[in-house]
Design brief:
With about 80 residues, the chain is mainly alpha-helical. It has one helix at about 1-30; strands at about 35-40, 60.
Amino acid sequence: MTKRISNISLCFFFLVGVLACISQSLAEKKGEGPVIYLDKTSHTFPPVFEGVELSHTFTVFNRGTANLDLKKVTHS
């Protein structure tokens, strides 16, 4: 029973991933709406002493035809 539920869950997540990829590629092909693109999605800072201020700039591109509105940016 547990193996069956595991297989169903695996298939479900695979299907969701495939649908997400298809919808993203369709949006890019149509060129309609905003399409966000980042050349780099993460950054690791080197070890530093406590109290040192660090910053990094990410460049965000809009490869779509509509305005891209960023409503919230968070750190991890």
